[in-house]
Amino acid sequence: MDEVLSVRRLTRTYRGRASGGPVQALDGVTFSVARGEFVCLLGPSGCGKSTALNVLAGLDRDFTGEVGLGQGVRIGFVFQSPRLLPWLTVRQNLLFALETSAVPRAEWGRRADDWLQRVGLGPFAHLHPHQLSGGMQHRAAVARAFAVDPDLLLMDEPFTGLDEFTARAMRRELLQLWRETRKSVLFVTHNCFEACFLADRILVMSAGPGRIRDEIVVDLPRPRDDESAELFDRSVEVTRAVLAAARGAG
Amino acid sequence: MELGLPFEPAVGRWRGLGRRLLSPAVGLRVASLLLALLVWEGLSLVVGARFIPSPGTTFAELWRLIASGAVWGQFLITLERMGISFALALVGGIVVGTLMGLYGQAEKLLDLWITVGLAIPGLCYVIIAFMWLGLNDRAAVLAIALSTFPPIAINVWQGTKAIDQGLVDMARVFGASSWRRATRVVFPQVLPYVMAAARSGVGVVWKVTVVVELLGRSNGIGYQLNYNFQVFDMAGVFAWTLFFTLVMIVIEIVIMKPIEGRLFRWRPAVRG
Fold it and tell me: Is the pLDDT of residue B4 over 50?
């Protein structure tokens, strides 16, 4: 299958503090993401999943191993906090990202409006971020990431700071947008249920040093139901896998 | 029920203005001013007009100075000294503050000296500059700039340190060049601190300028104050002080506030 991302033996070592030696955040991490696939990186905090995402996004260049992005693959990013520029309106925030994207200039305005509409922020396009609720700010961040027309969407625990009900709505909306656009997604989370609800494939990570321990294919039909017993059973299974991975690492 | 008028009728607008003027906040300010005048008048009566000229005498003297035109020449001289020194201190403060905020080495190298610079009284700079460079305007400007520089540098330093790196990373991930990140993401974050720095700078620069003129110049408002002091003309001292204070308040209201309002409209309203 066509791959948008392939990572080989990715290793990231932080030079140690005065006490103790160097800390290995990632050790020989190897995986790939196929075009149109939704992959979750799942693991406890400190297992290096955010580190991996920073490397993939080009924010961290101090690593060894290979990170292969397919020919001309462009990236969209949703951070844990919305990271909107507070002095711009919501619409201007989308334009700020569009102005340095591969999207032709003539389409910037239309795309910004279209994506704000799609995440339900159409009427709020001209407000500043501080005038929006936390959930709406996250919607704006999601709209920004989709608007730049990326081939690969990197998401770093984007719904962790939200209350459970808002997070559920956001997950459903994200899946809806994903089904419409079929972007490849690499989604980092520590929430087993979230991973089962969203992913085609889950990569289970453990800490000390960060490694991929297990791979679980979630072959549940879509659209998936938050309340279904099947999904719940799967998430229990996945939770066990994460715990087993953590034991294996210790 | 709402009438749903498409525009606010003029009468309503005037009534709105009236309501604002009669609001408790404005009322308290007016009361505070009236009370101050009353206390001033009272003290003048009790202590004697030789030591505390009454508000009437002071304003009459102020009017005489303005009407005779004597005030403007001196005022422009002082304003020029302030302006040049302030510009020097602002540029220097922004450069040094930015370096200290961005680079740990620059911070460790300079933070002690900025603190020392802040601790030294403005008067010391003035005396030393005059002794080194002579009683001239070069020394005056240097002394004023040196004492205005530390508070500006400190504000910019703190502002640069407070930059949200997350926003810079966001811009980078979405493909912004380093120039674009500096101008569109970093600069707008530092701007409020530069404005605060300019404000504290304006406060310092005027106080030091007056001292400089009193000690080593033969013109300017500081010199006029000194002259009035020599001849024990209290009304003159009061009038000159009042004049410059009023000018500073006007600068604050007419220049600083509108600039800030325009620049920082996006910020959440501060309640208070």
Answer: no
Provide the 3-class DSSP secondary structure of residue A204: strand
The string of pLDDT tens digits covering residues B66-87 is 898 878 888 899 999 999 999 9
Q: What is the DSSP string of A40-97?
A: EEE--TTSSHHHHHHHHHTS----EEEEEEPTT--EEEE-SS----TTS-HHHHHHHH
Quick check: B270 pLDDT over 80? Answer: no
pTM of the model: 0.78
- Distances from the Cα of B202 to the Cα of A37, B95, B209, B265, angstroms: 59, 18, 11, 23
3-state secondary structure of A184: strand
Indicate if the pLDDT at residue B2 is higher than 50. no
Facing B169 at nearest CB: one of A59, A85, A130: A59
Q: Is B179 on the interface with A (CB under 8 A)?
A: no
Distance from CA of A224 to the nearest CA of B (A): 31
B54: phi then psi, degrees, rounded to nearest 5: -70, 160
B174/A58 Cβ within 8 A: no
Which residues of chain B from 154 to 173 reach within 8 Å of chain A, CB to CB? 166-167, 169-173
